[in-house]
C-alpha cells in the first residue's frame, strides 16, 4: 500500500467492516508517511480537539491534515489529466460505495475516519474548478477566493450588526459603493446589500418596486392593491416568475415579452404589452431587463427599455447576475450601456468574476429604500442606544435576520487582482467564447443555434451525428436531434472527461450551451470539448 | 522586530506609504522566519498562483501561510487571556487604521500585502468563538465545523442539481430525514430544505401554508384571496412579521398573541384571538409557535397550540430555530413535547448545535408540498431527460436558484460527535445557564428579569449599581436602570474583555441577556462575566 497514490486509495470496493477498518488504517499510514504529522488520528476523536484543555496541537494537526487533502485537491483540479467527475447514481452512493457511508451515527467516529470521509466527499463530488467544467455559469476555483472563504468561516460571524461584524460591514459598504460607481451611479445615490444568490437579489428588486409605489403594502398587504403586473423577457431568468409567486403577485402576472432571434427583448413588444395590460385594467409597475441571459448570453437594449420605463413610470430593474462582470472590462462594458438608468441591478460576482459561491449583490439607486421597506427595528438586535453610529447596523435592510458573510472573499480578490485583473479575466473568457465560435463555424459536424457573434461567453450549438447529416430539416430530424445532446451528456458524465449543459428553448430542440467563466480554461480545452462530443456522439 | 509577537505587528500607527511598506516587509520576515515557507510573497501576486502554469508550489505556499494565520487565530480564540474584540468606531477603521486600508485598488497588491490584510481583518473583527462571547445565539468555533466549511468552499459547488452536487444533495437528504425522525415524524412523512437562515426558513413555512390552503395563489397572486391573518406570540421572533410583509400579507395581519410572565404564548389568548379575527371577517390560516424564544428562551405549550390549530384547521409551524437543538438531549427534549404535531419546523443547527454559520433547516411534514409550491421547471437546469433519477435534482423545491452548500459541515460534525455528542454539548450549555441562574439568585447586586428556573440557556438580568440599590421601584428608578446596561456594554466593548447583549422588552427596561451555546464556556467565564459587569458598572 505504501507508495500507492493516495487519490486511488478508495477505489477498491470494500464491503465488510473489518476490511474497511484496514483500509482506514492504510489511509492513515499513507497520510502520516507523507506529511509526518505527529498524531495518530485513529485513536482520537473530536472531543480531543479545542476547546478541550491542551487541545491546541491536536487541533492544528487535524486541520493541517485536512488542509493537505484540500491542497492536493486544488492542485489536482487544475490538471487536465484528472477527471471532472467520477459519476455514481444516487442509489450507488447511498448503498455505501467502497465503505463511504452517508449514515449519521449515534457514537462519534475517529478523526481518522473523518479525514477519510473528507477525501471521499471530494472524490465523489464534481470538480467545478476543472478547466473542462463548462456546465454552469459559476466555475473555476479562485485561490484568493478560497483563501477568503477559509478566513470567513474561521471568523464565523454574522452580517446583522457592526457590533459583531465591524470589518465585514465596512467591506460590504466599500464593495457596494465601488459596484455602484462602476454601474454609473453618482456619489449621492446608491444602496444595496449582498444576498444569498441572484434569485433573492431579483426578489428584492420586485419587493422594493412594490413598496416604492405602494408603501402601505408593508403593513396592510396586497388585498388593498390593484392587480399588479410585471414584465420580463421570454429569455429572462425564471427567478422573476418565482419571486412574483412568492411575493403574492402570482406567476401569471409576469408578462413575458417577446425577444428577437438573438434572445434580446424587443422594446416595441414591451411597450405594446404595457399598453395592452393597462387597457385590461391591470397595473404595470416593474420591468426586468436582462444583461446576459442564462442560455443565449443576450443583452437586452437597456436604453430603449429605460425610455419606455420612464414614459410609463415603471421601476426598471436590470438582472446583470451573469452580465455584470463585463462592466469590469473596458472592452466589453459598452454592452451594458444604459444600466446606469436602472433603479436596481442584480450583479453576481460568483459568476463572471470568479468569486466562490455565493456572492450576489442587489444594488438599489434610491438610498434608504431598502431600510424603509424591510426594517422592523427588533430591539434585541438593533438597539438605538448603542455607543457607536448605529447606521452601520445594516441588518434591518434585509429580509434575513442572520446573514452569511459573502463579502470578504470578493474584497480580498479585488485587493489581489485590482479592478484591472477582473477586466483581464473577463476578456480572457470572452476570447475563449470567440475561439469556440470560430471553430464551430468551420466545422460541418456542428451547427450554431444562432449565427451572430457572441456578446457574452455563451455559445449554443448542436452536434449533428453522421446519421443525421443527410436528413432534411423537419419534425423527424428534430425528434432525433433532440435526443442527441442528452445521450452525449450521459456518456460524458459516465466518462467524466468534460462537462457541459444542454437544454431545449422554445422551438429549438435540445442543444449544448457552453459558457466560459473559468480563467483556467485554454484553447486546448475547447478543442478537446469538440473532439470529445464528436467521439461520444458519432454512433448516434 | 524579529521575535516580536506577530499578533502585535500591526499595532503601531503607520501613516505614510514607505513606513507601511517597511511594516509589510517586517511582517513578511516574521512570517518566513516562523514557518520557513519558501516563497517571498512580496514579489509575487495572484497571477502567479494556479491556474498559472507551474503555480502549484506557489499556491500551496500561499494557502499554507494563510492557514498558519488561521490556526494561530483558532488557538488564540480559545485563550481567555486574549480579547473578545478590539473595538474601533467605523470612522477609525475607514480612515485606514495602522495602514489597514479598505479601499479597492485598480492594480493588484502583492500576496504579502494580502496576507497582512487577512491578519488585520481578523485582528479588527470580533472573536465569536471566545469562551466569553455571550452576545448572540450563535457562538463558538467548532473545529470539525470549520474543517467542513473549508472543504465546502474548496468544493465550491451549488445545491440545485445532483449533476453538480451528488454527494451534498444526498447528505442533505440524510440530514433532513434524521432531523425529521428526531422531531418525531414517521418514515412516510417529512420533507424539507436547508435555507440561508432562520428567517428564510420561517418565510418558507408561511409561503407553504398559504399555498396549501390557496394553491391558486402561486399563479394568480393574492388579489383573489380573502384577508388572511397569522398568529404568533408577542415574544416570538420578528421574522414572522418580516416574512408576512415580504410575502404580501402585511405585517399588521400578524396578530400578536399575549404571553405569560415567562414569555410563553397563552393558549386561551390564541384561541380567543382566532375567534375574534374570524368574527371580523378575517381568515386565519397559520400559527407560529416558538420553541425557545429569542430573549427569554421560552417554550410555547406546543400540545395546547396543536389542539387549537386542529380545531380551527390552521397550519401549525414551530419556530425551533433556537430550541431545536434541545431535541438532541434526552434530558431536555421533553420541553418540545408536541413538536411532532407541527406541520412545519424551523431548526437552526448553527445556533444550539454549534455549527458554523449558516445552517438552518425548514422541515415540512407533507411530502411534495415544497416542490409543488415552488417548482417552475426551468429547462436549462431541470431537464427531465437526464440519465439519472431526477427526483434528486431538488433545487426546484427552493425559491433560490443557486444555493450554497450548508449541509456538509453539519454532516461532518454529526459523524465526528454522533447524536450523543450533540446531546452532551446541549446539556453542558444548559448546565452553564443553571449555574449563572444560581449565582444570580445569591447576589444582591443583580436582579433576575423572571424568577423561574431557565428552560433554555437564556438568562435575563439587571445589574443594579450601588447608587440605585436604595431607590424604590418606580419611574425614576426605571429611567436610571434603563441606562445602565448600554453604558456597561459600551465600556465592555471598549475594553474587549467579554461581550453580552441587552435589550428592553415590553415594560421591562434594558436588561442583559446571557445565552450559552459555546461548549468552550466554563464556570470561571460565568464568574468573570458577573465580576466584570460589576467592575464596569459600580460607579454608575
UniProtKB/TrEMBL annotation, chains A, B:
Comp. bias intervals (Basic and acidic residues): 13-37
GO molecular function (one): glutamate decarboxylase activity
InterPro entries: PyrdxlP-dep_de-COase (IPR002129), PyrdxlP-dep_Trfase (IPR015424), PyrdxlP-dep_Trfase_major (IPR015421), Pyridoxal-P_BS (IPR021115)
N6-(pyridoxal phosphate)lysine found at: 351
CDD domains with a match to the protein in the record: DOPA_deC_like
Record's GO cellular component terms: cytoplasm; presynaptic active zone
Keywords: Decarboxylase, Lyase, Pyridoxal phosphate
Needed co-factor(s): pyridoxal 5'-phosphate
Biased composition (Polar residues): 1-12
Biological processes annotated in GO: gamma-aminobutyric acid biosynthetic process
Region (Disordered): 1-49
Gene3D superfamilies with a match to the protein in the record: 3.90.1150.170, Type I PLP-dependent aspartate aminotransferase-like (Major domain)
TM stretches of this protein: none
Family (UniProt): Belongs to the group II decarboxylase family.
UniProt subunit comment: Homodimer.
Protein name from the UniProt record: Glutamate decarboxylase 1
Amino acid at each position: 500500500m505504501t507508495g500507492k497514490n493516495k487519490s486511488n486509495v478508495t477505489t477498491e470496493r470494500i464491503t465488510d467492516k473489518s476490511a474497511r477498518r484496514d483500509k482506514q488504517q492504510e489511509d492513515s499510514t499513507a497520510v502520516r508517511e507523507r506529511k509526518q504529522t505527529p498524531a495518530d488520528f485513529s485513536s482520537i476523536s473530536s472531543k480531543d480537539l479545542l476547546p478541550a484543555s491542551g487541545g491546541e496541537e491536536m487541533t492544528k494537526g487535524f486541520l493541517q491534515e485536512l488542509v493537505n487533502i484540500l491542497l492536493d485537491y486544488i492542485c489536482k483540479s487544475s490538471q487536465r489529466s484528472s477527471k471532472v467527475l467520477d459519476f455514481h447514481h444516487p442509489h450507488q452512493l447511498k448503498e455505501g460505495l467502497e465503505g463511504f457511508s452517508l449514515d449519521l451515527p449515534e457514537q462519534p467516529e475517529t478523526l481518522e475516519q473523518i479525514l477519510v470521509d473528507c477525501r471521499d466527499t471530494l472524490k465523489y463530488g464534481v470538480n467545478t474548478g476543472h478547466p473542462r467544467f463548462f456546465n454552469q455559469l459559476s466555475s473555476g476555483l479562485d485561490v484568493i477566493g478560497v483563501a477568503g472563504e477559509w478566513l470567513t468561516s474561521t471568523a464565523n460571524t454574522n452580517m446583522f450588526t457592526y457590533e459583531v461584524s465591524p470589518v465585514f460591514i465596512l467591506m460590504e459598504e466599500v464593495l457596494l459603493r465601488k459596484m455602484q460607481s462602476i454601474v454609473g451611479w453618482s456619489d449621492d445615490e446608491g444602496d444595496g446589500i449582498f444576498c444569498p444568490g441572484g434569485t433573492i437579489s431579483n426578489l428584492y428588486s420586485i419587493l422594493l418596486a412594490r413598496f416604492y409605489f405602494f408603501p402601505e403594502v408593508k403593513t396592510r398587504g396586497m388585498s388593498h392593491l390593484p392587480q399588479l403586473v410585471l414584465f420580463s423577457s421570454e429569455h429572462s431568468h425564471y427567478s422573476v416568475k418565482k419571486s412574483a409567486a412568492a411575493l403574492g403577485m402570482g406567476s401569471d402576472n409576469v408578462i413575458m415579452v417577446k425577444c428577437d432571434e438573438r434572445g434580446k427583448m424587443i422594446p416595441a413588444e414591451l411597450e405594446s404589452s404595457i399598453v395592452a395590460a393597462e387597457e385590461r385594467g391591470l397595473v404595470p409597475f416593474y420591468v426586468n431587463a436582462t444583461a446576459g441571459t442564462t442560455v443565449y448570453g443576450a443583452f437586452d437594449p437597456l436604453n430603449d427599455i429605460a425610455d419606455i420605463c420612464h414614459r410609463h413610470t415603471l421601476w426598471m430593474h436590470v438582472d446583470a447576475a451573469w452580465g455584470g462582470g463585463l462592466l469590469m472590462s473596458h472592452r466589453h462594458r459598452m454592452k451594458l450601456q444604459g444600466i446606469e438608468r436602472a433603479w436596481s441591478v442584480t450583479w453576481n460576482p460568483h459568476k463572471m468574476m470568479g468569486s466562490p459561491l455565493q456572492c450576489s449583490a442587489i444594488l438599489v439607486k434610491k438610498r434608504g429604500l431598502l431600510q424603509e421597506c424591510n426594517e422592523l427595528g427588533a430591539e434585541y438586535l438593533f438597539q438605538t442606544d448603542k455607543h457607536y453610529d448605529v447606521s452601520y447596523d445594516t441588518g434591518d435592510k434585509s429580509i434575513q435576520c442572520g446573514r452569511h458573510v459573502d463579502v470578504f472573499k470578493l474584497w480580498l480578490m479585488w485587493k489581489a487582482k485590482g479592478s484591472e485583473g477582473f477586466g483581464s479575466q473577463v476578456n480572457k473568457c470572452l476570447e475563449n467564447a470567440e475561439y469556440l465560435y470560430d471553430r464551430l463555424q468551420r466545422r460541418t459536424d456542428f451547427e450554431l443555434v444562432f449565427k451572430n457573434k457572441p456578446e457574452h461567453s455563451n455559445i449554443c450549438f448542436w452536434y449533428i451525428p453522421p446519421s443525421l447529416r443527410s436528413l432534411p430539416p423537419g419534425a423527424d430530424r428534430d425528434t432525433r436531434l433532440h435526443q442527441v445532446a442528452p445521450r452525449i451528456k450521459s456518456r460524458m458524465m459516465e466518462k467524466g472527461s468534460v462537462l457541459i449543459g444542454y437544454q431545449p428553448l422554445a422551438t429549438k430542440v435540445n442543444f449544448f450551451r457552453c459558457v466560459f467563466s473559468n480563467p483556467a480554461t485554454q484553447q486546448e480545452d475547447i478543442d478537446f470539448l469538440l473532439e470529445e462530443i464528436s467521439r461520444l456522439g458519432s454512433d448516434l
